[in-house]
Amino acid sequence: IIENKTFQSKLIHFTVDEAHLIPSWGKNFRPCFSHIGSFAQGCVPILTWTATLVIGSATSSICVSKYAQLLNYLHDGQKTVIHVNTIPEAYRIYKFLWDYIPNEFNHL
To answer: Nearest-5° angle of CA 39, CA 45, CA 37?
Structure first.
């Protein structure tokens, strides 16, 4: 639906309210929240609203990396090739993906 031109022409922005509650709910409360960025990226501005969140670890926990859309490719069980433009970008992606290795797998 987000790619439908009629829908896009009527949509101003994508908003999540009460963003300060996301850290206390935890990542498992609404797993789909973590896909909002990859779902709406490039279609509409994405906003989160809160009146009580202070800068710090809680702020970091609701800000998802620009690489989050890569997780969709990795979860389908197929081999994935990721092309990057620079070595520093490859390292940032490596660090991002490292954190998503399931605990039951050896990280080395």
So the answer is: 30
The residue written with tokens 């998503």 in the block is 100
Instruction: Provide the 10 A C-beta neighbour count for residue 78.
Output: 7
CB 13 within 8 A of CB 44: yes
- The model carries a pTM of 0.41
Backbone angles phi, psi at 77, to 5 degrees: 80, 5
φ and ψ at residue 51, rounded to 5 degrees: -110, -5
- What pLDDT is recorded for position 49? 75
Which DSSP string do the residues of 67-85 spell out, in sequence order? TTTHHHHHTT-S------S
